[in-house]
UniProtKB/TrEMBL annotation:
Enzymatic reactions: L-arogenate + H(+) = L-phenylalanine + CO2 + H2O
Organism: Psophocarpus tetragonolobus (Winged bean)
Location(s), subcellular: Plastid, Chloroplast stroma
Pfam family, one: PDT
Domain called ACT: residue spans: 315-406
First-listed, main subcellular location of the protein, grouped into a coarse class: plastid
Residues of the Prephenate dehydratase domain: 124-301
GO MF annotation terms: arogenate dehydratase activity; prephenate dehydratase activity
GO cellular component, one term: chloroplast stroma
UniProt key word Cell inner membrane: no
SUPFAM superfamilies: ACT-like, Periplasmic binding protein-like II
Metabolic or biological pathway, per its Swiss-Prot or TrEMBL entry: Amino-acid biosynthesis; L-phenylalanine biosynthesis; L-phenylalanine from L-arogenate: step 1/1
Listed PROSITE patterns: ACT, PREPHENATE_DEHYDR_1, PREPHENATE_DEHYDR_2, PREPHENATE_DEHYDR_3
Name under which the protein is recorded: Arogenate dehydratase
């Protein structure tokens, strides 16, 4: 399977990130090159951002002759007075496309990240992918009416929260068919964010193509590698025996087809991606297994206070200098207290990947070292969970609680079965 990367033009720099999102009617945007003196306060910064969001985005014609008023005077915000001239606003080019359609938000890249926060009335939630991705749907399920911020990499989503560009991140950690997303388990350890919740999202794949394209015209199907694998049998039943090519994500595949007018290419993605990028749904519900669910975790800069009035789950990671020999003792600490484990995952210990044991009789033995990620059904507010971790700490050289958070208890309905042909 060949790998096909989406256009790199999707990358967004920080100046584009802080521009007001373009609407259906084109209007000029602004960027702020205002620099505060060291004595400026955080309230001043918030005031200026509020001014930008509420007063500055005006039509240039309105700025020149709307009832004879000028844009030099702006009302006080949070008790702090400021003016447009003080903010040194510089007009920039119109961001709407030639058809006057609003542009979709583009994913963040590493270069977009800056410690300057952005403030708004909506909760800002970072996710990996482009609009129409399943991660965006998970963000909307976890935080309805949030402002979803697309990121081109998982690590960018972590950093967006750490640097106050976003308030939360919603990232996948496991799929019922594809297993664990190892990259995000590694990033959970590398970064200091806390798991504050989880959400489980049924995956419903569709076959998308440009309007008017028939399956006889197709020469390839593109999508995320796992999505292609999850639809392989159904695609074959549909008579689509063409090349499969991998891209970074499902919605990115739909965007690639639409942007490049690829009439010989279909994409496996969500129905929302078809709506966003103007594609036709050639086949609906093409996943081989209707029981296809992805589990996402919600990340924040601060942990939540654990409670006992509803089901909670706790995630930990631990390691030991003597390798895996203490794993049974660790698991016994939970079994003796009737605490159920819902997941256990091992990952290589990157700081000490190999442990050497010298024996004069048999030579040098080499053992792989591992970190263990464990989820268990208990809240850290419960005494039994606290006692279990106190015992685990006696056997381990490293122990960290990634989060204690409410379980996703929403009813689950499997995706519709694939069509029969």
């Amino acid at each position: 399977m060949q790998t096909l990367s989406p256009p790199t033009s999707n990358a967004l720099n920080l100046k584009q990130l802080i521009r007001p999102r373009p609407r259906s009617r084109p209007r000029p945007s602004v960027k702020c090159v205002y620099s505060f003196e060291p004595a400026s306060t955080r309230a001043d910064w918030q005031s200026s951002c509020a001014i930008l969001a509420s007063n500055v985005q005006q039509n240039s014609a309105d700025n020149n002759n709307h009832n004879g008023a000028t844009a030099d005077h702006v009302a006080a915000v949070n008790g702090h007075k400021a003016s447009v001239t003080d903010l040194k606003l510089v007009p920039i080019q119109n961001l709407a496309d030639s058809n006057n359609k609003p542009l979709q938000p583009k994913p963040l890249t590493i270069s977009d990240l800056s410690p300057a926060p952005m403030h708004g009335s909506k909760l800002r939630v970072a996710y990996q992918g482009v609009p129409g991705a399943y991660s965006e749907a998970a963000a909307g399920k976890a935080y309805p009416n949030c402002e979803a911020i697309p990121c081109d990499q998982f690590e960018v989503a972590f950093q967006a929260v750490e640097l106050w560009i976003a308030d939360r991140a919603v990232l996948p950690v496991e799929n019922s068919l594809g297993g664990s997303i190892h990259r995000n388990y590694d990033l959970l350890l590398r970064h200091r964010l806390h798991i504050v919740g989880e959400v489980q999202l049924p995956v419903h794949h569709c076959l998308l193509a440009l309007p008017g394209v028939r399956k006889e015209f197709l020469t390839r199907v593109i999508s995320h590698p796992q999505a292609l694998a999850q639809c392989e049998h159904t695609l074959t039943k549909l008579g689509i025996n063409v090349a499969r090519e991998a891209v970074d994500d499902t919605a990115g595949a739909a965007e690639l087809v639409a942007t490049n007018n690829l009439r010989d290419t279909a994409a496996v993605a969500s129905a929302r991606a078809a709506e966003l990028y103007g594609l036709n749904v050639m086949a609906d519900g093409i996943q081989d297994d209707p029981s296809n669910v992805t589990r996402f975790v919600m990340l924040a800069r601060e942990p939540i206070i654990p409670r006992t009035d509803r089901p909670f789950k706790t995630s930990i990671v631990f390691a030991h200098d003597k390798g895996t020999s203490v794993l049974f003792k660790v698991l016994s600490a939970f079994a003796f207290r009737n605490i159920s484990l819902t997941k256990i995952e091992s990952r290589p210990h990157r700081n000490r990947p190999i442990r050497l044991v010298d024996d004069a009789n048999v030579g040098t033995a080499k053992h792989f070292e591992y970190l263990f990620y464990v989820d268990f059904d208990a809240s850290m507010a419960e005494v039994r969970a606290q006692n279990a971790l106190a015992e685990v700490q006696e056997f381990t050289s490293f122990l960290r609680v990634l989060g204690s958070y409410p379980m996703d208890m929403t009813p689950w309905t499997p995706s519709s079965p694939p069509p029969s042909h």
